[in-house]
Every structure is written in structure tokens, then in C-alpha cells.
Amino acid sequence: MIEQKAVEHSREVEVMKRNMTRRNFVKLAGMAVALAALPGCATLAADTAVKKPDGKQKVAGTGGERYVPYQERQGAESVVYFTRDLSAAGLLQIYDRVKKDLGGKVAIKLHTGEPQGPNIIPRPWVKELLQKRLPAGTIIETNTYYGGGRDTTEKHRQTLQVNGWTAFTTVDITDAEGTAMLPVPNGKWFTEMSVGKNMLAYDSLLTLTHFKGHAMGGFGGSNKNLGIGCADGKIGKKMIHAGDSGSQWGVNNEEFMERMTESTQAVVSHFKDKIAFINVMRNMSVDCDCAGTSAQPVVTPDIGIVASLDILAADQACVDCVYALPEESRHDLVERMESRHSMRQLTYMKEMGMGNDRYQLIDIDNGDKVITAAEAVKGVKGTWVPDGN
């Protein structure tokens, strides 16, 4: 009887996969079906495999759906720089505040986007940064875990050309020639993480991130840019997304945040103090740039750019700025963050000793005045208006 029911359930799932629209399945499957926005992932979003114990019980933390207000946080403060100037000039100015330890062979970890992706950091901004500040710098990427325009090196290179990156620079697809394992200090889920082998050839790392929503992570900041973006496409990303679940996308909510963060820890620990973080809060769709042209339309208004030598402080400042927006402006992005339990990214980074969730926000537009997130977004209201870039 049990076996018969299992077979019947399996058949029902297959019927659902064939017959249900994406919108209807979103209502049924919640978070997992948001993966349908990713190229090549529509049929994978319905996976419902149950995780199998690996002999030693590992339990994810809780509370990822709850935003912790600043006054409830404890500990030291880091420094985060802020500008409202969303332009190449603004990017150069804020980069100058965090560049001091970037030397030798510099890698720039940047999401270069799916074909024709509408929301990535404007290429002219990056071109000016490279030409005026990092003429010997190299953009690094890895192949994707999902099918689409970047899941093989050949397709990835074609997409880089389509998106205009090869017109002014070269991009090192770091897992094109193999992988390497990096240790994960104090990891719960991992002792090591598989990354693109070529990343180890660089002396320092600029993490240049488009801050936005994310189908699984809730939000994609510097933590996502490194944790997913530096893990190689076939091994590392599978370790994060699938784990021991038996399903390609079987890990979610707090466990996913923790696995992604441990992957980031491997990268941050490798570069030590030779690393800096810049988050650009512009074109903040609820979907990641992995969704390309299928990303949900942008609603949340643009805010500005933050930079720090502390990855947690940089991501926390962006989240705080979003929460400081008026309700109509923040609603969609906050709903995405809370429904995916994304605050576990922040609390787990703090637990792992990766940074501070308290910070001094330095307004470089106004004489380095220390401001709050609410002051940073003062006057930002309504919904998104395209900036023409």
C-alpha cells in the first residue's frame, strides 16, 4: 500500500510539472518555483526530494525571516561608505575609499549577466573603473549550475561578447580549466569548498556587486556574489544548492543561507585582508541577474552605492537602507527577503566571525558625515524610475 501511494504521488508530481503554469505553481510551491525564472530551471523547480541523513545530524539556524533592527544588535562597529551618485564617477569615488589593500594581481568578482540581462552594473561604469583605477585588473566569473547562456565555457564566452564585456576587457572564467578546494574555517556544512582553479592565481579581490533580490537567497549582495559566484559550476554550486537532498535545488531557507555563507567564508579567508566590497543598489529587481530578461520588473527605487572592508557590514547596510524606505517602495523586495529567510545570511556571517552588523555609515557626498540608513534614503520614495544607463 505504501509503495502504491508513493508511485501515485510520483505520477501526480509529474502531471503537475506538465500541466501547471509557472504562476500557479508559484502559489503551490512558494520559494522553490522562483527558480523557474532562471534559464533552464523551470522543470527543476518542482523537485521535492526529501533529504537523507548523512550520519551526523546538522541543524540549520532559525529566524531568517526576521529583520533585526539596528538598536537590537550588539558588538563593534565597522565603517561603511555611502554615495547617492549612481554613475561611473560615483563608483570611482567610493572605490578610492576601500582600495588601500588591493594590490598585486587584482581580480574583480562581478556578475556579468545572462544574455541581454537588463539590470547588471552598466558596462561603461566598469570600463572606466578598469581604465582609470585597475588597468591590470581582471574580471573573474564561473560557469553556472543551471542551464542557460553561461553553463558551459563556450556558451559563457559567447554571452560575454553579447553583453559587451569583451569590447573592453577579458574575463577569466575561473573554472574553465578545472577546480580547487579551499578550506572553510569553522564550517558546519563544509570543511572545504570547490572553486574555480584560476581564482587562486590572484593576489587580491574587489567584490563588485549588484545588490538586488534573489530567487533563493532573498537578496543578493556581496555574500551571494562570492558564495555562489566563486563556487565552480559543477561541484561547488551543487554542494550549496543540492547538498545530500538528491534534488538539484533541494536546499533552501536557512540551510541554503548557511551553505552559501560558508562558501563565501572560504573565499574571504583565502584573500584575508586583501579584499574589499562594493554594493551597487540600482535596478533592484526581486530576481537575481541570473534570471536575465525574465527577471521580474524593477519596483524598488534606486538608492546608491556602499563600500566597506567588512562584507557583513556592507550587506547589512544595504538591507537597512531597503527597510528604511517607505512601505510602497520597499514592499516587494522586503517580501522577497523575508519569505526566503534571507536574514540568516547576516546572522550567520556574524556567528562565523566574518564581520560586524553594526557600522558607521559615512556619507561621502556630505563631508563624510556619519548618518543613519534612514538619512541615506531620505527623499527616496515611490517606485523605480529608469536612469537611462
Describe the structure.
With about 400 residues, the chain is an alpha/beta fold. Helices cover about 30% and strands about 15% of the residues. The protein has helices spanning about 1-20, 20-30, 90-95, 125-130, 155-160, 220-225, 235-240, 255-270, 310-325, 325-340, 345-350, 375; strands at about 75-85, 105-110, 140, 170-175, 180-185, 190-195, 205-210, 210-215, 220, 275-280, 305-310, 360-365, 370. A hairpin with an 8-residue loop joins strand 5 (about 180-185) and strand 6. It starts with a helix and ends in a 13-residue tail after the last helix.
List keywords for this structure.
389 residues, Rossmann fold, alpha/beta, two-stranded antiparallel ribbon, disordered N terminus, 9-stranded mixed β-sheet, globular, single chain
Produce the secondary structure layout.
Elements lengths: L1 H18 L2 H8 L47 E7 L4 H8 L10 E4 L13 H10 L5 E4 L11 H10 L8 E3 L5 E5 L8 E5 L7 E7 L1 E3 L3 E3 L1 H6 L8 H6 L11 H19 L3 E7 L22 E5 L2 H13 L3 H13 L3 H9 L6 E6 L5 E3 L1 H4 L13
Parallel strand pairs: 1-12, 2-3, 2-7, 3-4, 7-10
Antiparallel strand pairs: 1-11, 5-6, 8-9, 10-11, 12-13
